[in-house]
Amino acid sequence: MDKIVDARGLVCPQPVIKTREAMKDMTEGTLTILVDNEITVQNVMKLGNYSGFNPTSQKLSEAEYQVVFYMKKGAVTLQHNALEEECVPDSRKKGLVAVISSDQMGTGSEELGRILMKGFVYAMTQLEELPETILLYNGGARLSTMGSASLEDLKTLEAQGVEILTCGTCLNYYGLSEKLCVGTVTNMYEITEKMAGARLVIRP
Fold this sequence. Notes:
Organism: Lacrimispora amygdalina
CATH architecture of the largest domain: 3-Layer(aba) Sandwich
Low-confidence stretches: 76-85
Shape: elongated
CATH topology of the largest domain: Hypothetical Protein Ychn, Chain: A
Structural class: alpha/beta
Mean pLDDT: 87
Family: Belongs to the sulfur carrier protein TusA family.
Protein name: UPF0033 domain-containing protein
Oligomer: single chain
InterPro entries: DsrEFH-like, Se_metab_YedF, TusA-like, TusA-like_sf
Radius of gyration: 18 Å
CATH class of the largest domain: Alpha Beta
Number of domains: 2
Distance between the termini: 45 Å
Domain UPF0033: 5-29
Largest sheet: 5 strands, parallel
Strand order of the largest sheet: 8-7-6-5-9
Order of helices and strands: EHEHEEEHEHEHEHE
Number of strands: 9
CATH superfamily of the largest domain: DsrEFH-like
């Protein structure tokens, strides 16, 4: 049996509590939780991970997100009552902008460069302080599109509140306009504005 929990407009810990209530009498199926901000996504994702349901998240619009728990019959649900009282703080570092202009890192072997770039994007997910914004342009635009090896890591970052912006002109140039899978399309003015206003810019 599938269920939907509408937790939009609720403040922590209410979305987590409503999700736990919906989980109680579910033995299999999908549980979809609708929320309206990235930090609530982070809190609900944490509950799903503790419970062993391998949750996924998706940004539906500017102020609407969904988290999906995949519940299989016979799966063990881990108890973690303290989660009802936990609200994960915003772990983004204000003014930290990551700028990625290629799908490869460094010069030399293209294959090695792509491996290094995948490692770089993954490493960002492990930082104690995440970037506030990631800007993707030129070859870096490929990272946020269908088939990218870094797609799941970028989705993880977005679910934790990181703004993912991909150059629209670059997507058009590479024929990827219909294949964007994470974040939103941006333009050169906004890219310049984000970089100019950053307190710290990091580049692979």
